[in-house]
Structure formats: C-alpha cells, structure tokens
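User: I'll paste a sequence; please echo it back and then give the predicted structure.

Assistant: Echoing your sequence first, then the prediction.
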Amino acid sequence: MRNLLRFALALALLTGGCAAPAQPSTTTQPNAAVTRPAQLDTSTTQMSQVGSYRIRLTPDQEPVTISTLQTWTVHVETADGQAVTGATVSVDGGMPEHNHGLPTKPLVTAGADGDYRVEGVKFQMPGWWTLTVTVAEGGRSDSATFNLLLN
C-alpha cells in the first residue's frame, strides 16, 4: 500500500506540470536591424534631442580599436555654453546593422567643468556603431546618439 501511494504521488508530480495550461509569452521582439544611412553623421559634438545640452564625445586614444577596453570623455554644456556639473550621465550603445548592444556596460564618473569620464567601452567587431549619451539633472533628461565607423 505504501509503495502504491509513493507511485501515485510521483506520477502526480511528474504529470502535473504537463497538464498546466500554456502561459502566453511575455518576451518582446527586439528591434529589427537597420541599414546604415548613405550619409552618416559622424560628428563628435551634437545638440541633444530636445536641445537642452551640447554634448561632445571624445575617445582618449585614437584611432578607436576593436576588442580593447577604452576610455572616453563626455563634455556636457547647456545650449548657451555653460558647463553642466553634477548631472547623472550614462552611456550605452550598439551595432544597429547587427541589432546588438555593446559587450560591456560603460561606467561614467563625473569630473570637473562639465567633463565625465567613461570607462569600459569595447567594440568587438568593425562596422557601424552608435553610442548614446544620456544626461539627467534637475528633473529633466535628454540624450544624443553618436555614430562611429570602425575599421
């Protein structure tokens, strides 16, 4: 009798998951890869999307190389040229043609006079890359996306 109860319990546990109704998928489809524009803006200074900031992105070493950790400097100033200090700055990026992000998560630390140090940027292959700099301060947030063509 005891073995029969064990068998029934084991059978119930094994088949219980199979009888459960299927759950709808909660994953979202990633954005589709995009084709590189014929006229790609590769400028290193841009106004942010809303126009709150002028942002300059500069690598500490040139040329930018593949498969090495790099450090960059982001300079942030207001539209009228005043250095922005004390903001929260983040950098993310990816490869639009391949629909993937950076292989690292860059770390940003504040410096002086509107400069922010970005460590841990890495590109794992040549091609078109983007780096998006987001600046948040005083309850507002704005960003600029920079295009890079790496050989």
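Helices lie at 2-19. Residues 62 and 142 are 27 Å apart (CA to CA).
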